[in-house]
Amino acid sequence: MLFAILIGVLFAFIAPLVYRLLGRYVAILMALLPLALFSYFISLYPRVVQGEVIIANYTWVEALAINLQFRLDGLSLIFVLLITLFGFLIMIYASAYLQGDPLLGRFYLYLTLFMTAMLGIVTADNIFCLFLFWELTSVSSYLLIGFNNTNKQARVSAWQALLVTGGGGLALFAGLILLSIASGAHTFTGLLAQKNILADHASFLPAFVLIMVGCFTKSAQFPFHFWLPNAMAAPTPVSAYLHSATMVKAGIYLLARLAPILSGPDVWFYTLAGVGSITAILGAVVAVQHTDIKAILAYTTIGALGLLVMMLGINSTLAIKGMLVFLVAHALYKGTLFLVAGAIDHCMGTRNISQLRCLGEHMIPLGIAATLAALSMAGILPFLGFIAKEMLYEATFTTPWLLGIATLSGLVFVAIALLLSYRLFWKKSSKPTPPRHALSIGLYLPPLVLGIAGLTAGLMVSSVPSKLINGAMQQIVASHSNTYKLALWHGFTPVFWLSIGTVILGVSLYRFLPFIRIRSVGMQHMYKYGPDALYHRAFERLLHGAKTFIAKLQNGYLRSYIIYIILFFCGLLLIVMWRDPSDISFSQPAASLNETQLYEFVLVALVIAALIYLLGTRSRLTSIVVMGLVGYSAALLYVLFGAPDVAATQLLIETLTVVIFVLLLHKLPAFTYLSHQFQKYKFIAIAIFFGAVMTYVMLLVQARAVDSDLKKFYGAASYEQAHGRNIVNVILVDFRGLDTLGEISVLAVAAIGIYALLRLNSEKGGKP
Amino acid sequence: MRTLIFATAIRLLTPLFLLFSVYILFRGHHHPGGGFIGGLICSLAFVFHALAHGSEHTESTYFRLSVCQYKANGKPSQLYYVWSWMQLAIRKNHRNGNHKRFHVIRLRPIYLMAFGLLLAAGSGMVGLILGKPFMTAWWLPLELPVLGSLGTPLLFDTGVFMLVLGMVLKMVFTMKKE
């Protein structure tokens, strides 16, 4: 199974190569992969529905418990089958939709990568593994939304989706880590075993909130829903695959997976039911105001996701079962409708409803697909959507406010379904919209297959779908009492009458849709305060703030950088010394002054004299030579104190510095005092301050000599283990060789940077 | 700075400098010295040479393998066709009188840096290949008379040597050219 989950990565990266070799026939190969995976997982179906859990492990970083651990159970199986089935159809559809696009190979790369990431999410057992694939879906979604990279709207939307879902992913990761610290387990199986400890743990609530943020951003719940409508800038196959059927359901999947662990306290019900119902209302209310087909579908998707979260919040056996049925039904009909919308866009050149009339005349197969999906969406009898809606009403029947929200969503779904099937395709009109080109088979076959799948699933609900859903139920609800059997017909119950009433009221709502759209114009100014506008404002503020800050900090003057560094460093030192005050006696250092040799005094006097002279000199050459003198004196000091390696390095560096200065000397402008006299005193003060702090620190270090075994260890081990008598060098190249490797890498990068700076300046015609 | 004495002295001293720098590199394991100091000495040799003769001259003396091709009765030689066919980074440089000059190999400082980094990282890989942690030292069992024993730390030090050399040369040559 490990192979089946990860093979997609390989396929993804050969896609552009295959595209170069085979042209558009790359679609065949890329569609075969999901088909093969689908058949593979179908072959596991009999084992999984009997309650068997299939496990695949690969040890990666054992010490940190970061392993690739996968488990396929009933809940995963539903998602896996949806992902691979959709993957197959979308791959075929995309080849027709993006026909002639030179970047088709790259598109397949992103799409296959996404599919693999999605498979990874729904089968991951290890939390790190889950996070890895979770963020991979965010990244591949970013790449797919921004696929039309010449379009600014697409780029901005892609950014937004990445920031929102990627940021949510980080929150989720933090939450999962909190859970794993609290319980000591790194897998969902382990967390489930420890759930009694978790429920009373202090970090339960923070972890809960963080995980909720992660799931809500991914599944576009209020107030993070705004990225989903904007993500419709993606090519339609992407919208159908990512933003209706699979990726936005990842949050739902994780909530369902964690439901047994987190759903004990009341906070689960209030958070999920609250957020879910707000999102459902929002989706329903906004959906009826739009005329762009994709926008309508996006908002109904948000509404449906809200309903799913709401049902998870109720967390009764019936609600969970209804949630699963609705999830499958929604994926099937919404995917179909998205594909239909894409085909219409492709053939007609517009997605605006008011410009489209009587499309059934030219594209009958597409009309049939749309009608099948719409009937399922509206919840008409033999379709899977009907069963989902019945169960939704049944589950919320005892709580009036939840029932009200469910009914409102149902009404809007009926109206939208009528709009997208009857109004677009079959309503008679004197002027049918002519298509730009004929419908190709790749554009209508996938939605037709999906639409028929929705019908068959409804008709055969008591066989295969029922078993699948029962398998998933075992994972979510511990004591699974099989009271509510999935069946098409339950008799004339109150719920059935409610269902009929919804359809009738929905038809009348459809009549009022144009009227609502006209009246809703007044609501436009409300969006200025919506989360989307807030996001954009915050983003601009952030950029602006960063720009101002950088302009202040990096003003291009070397002296200000040095001042910042020194002051920051001194500040840190002072904070440490203030927190941990220690008094040192100056008697011992003063006593050691007496032992100072004469030549040491001479050297120090030489350095001080040179420095004083340096301050007064006005010639650049003199100052360089005097600086060299200071450096050589320091080197001599090292020699006297028995550090020949350091001394040699210092000597050579000084020589090099002087030579390089001399090289550049004649190119520098004349030596002038540009800064104000006051500036000079400021610099002197800072220098003295820095010197004083460093002297104090040195005295402190001397006073508290640490008795360490390091010296002894290196002295002994240097020759015996490392075959070298020069301890300094042995440490550099052997004991701490990795540090040196890092340092020389930095050196190389710095050299390239210097080169770039010099070249850049000369190309601009500036001074070197 | 082009004085005759300085230029002549540097021309004679540069090979000495270079030899000394290599000696320092090998000596580093037992006595003061090592790759960093050796690299600095080596680069100083070239920097002084560049100071005395100009960086162009230094580059063409030490960092280029050039091939001269004389025109025999007005036609390019057979060898020229072979080279141009092999695409061996042939650049036309001089075209005075009856011969052309091609640079077959041009050792840019940045290659030195890259090679040094590769050598340093590669010496660490030896330990990895032998199934031990990265950068585990591995020594040849024999002891050479002047150079001492050979092992991966020496290789690492050579990497440091070349990187330092390349870095200083890159900076100085770039500054000189402006």
From TrEMBL, chain A:
It is a multi-pass membrane protein. Keywords: Antiport, Cell membrane, Ion transport, Membrane, Transmembrane, Transmembrane helix, Transport. It is found in: Cell membrane; Membrane. Pfam families: MbhD (PF13244), MbhE (PF20501), Proton_antipo_M (PF00361), Proton_antipo_N (PF00662). The keyword Isomerase does not apply. Residues 605-669 form the MrpA C-terminal/MbhD domain. InterPro entries: CPA3_Na-H_Antiporter_A, MrpA_C/MbhD, MrpA_C/MbhE, ND/Mrp_TM, Proton_antipo_N. Residues 682-759 form the MrpA C-terminal/MbhE domain. The chain crosses the membrane at residues 24-45, 75-96, 108-134, 161-185, 197-217, 238-256, 268-288, 295-314, 320-344, 364-388, 400-420, 441-461, 495-513, 561-578, 598-616, 623-641, 647-669, 681-701, 740-758. GO terms for biological process: monoatomic ion transport. GO terms for cellular component: plasma membrane. One of its GO terms (molecular function) is antiporter activity. Residues 124-407 form the NADH:quinone oxidoreductase/Mrp antiporter transmembrane domain. Residues 62-108 form the NADH-Ubiquinone oxidoreductase (complex I) chain 5 N-terminal domain. PANTHER family: NA(+)/H(+) ANTIPORTER SUBUNIT (PTHR43373), NA(+)_H(+) ANTIPORTER SUBUNIT A (PTHR43373:SF1). This is DUF4040 domain-containing protein. It comes from Pontibacter oryzae.
From TrEMBL, chain B:
The keyword Cell membrane applies. The chain crosses the membrane at residues 5-26, 32-52, 110-130, 150-173. Its main location: membrane. It is found in: Cell membrane. InterPro entries: CPA3_antiporter_subunitB, MnhB. Keywords: Cell membrane, Membrane, Transmembrane, Transmembrane helix. Belongs to the CPA3 antiporters (TC 2.A.63) subunit B family. This is Cation:proton antiporter.
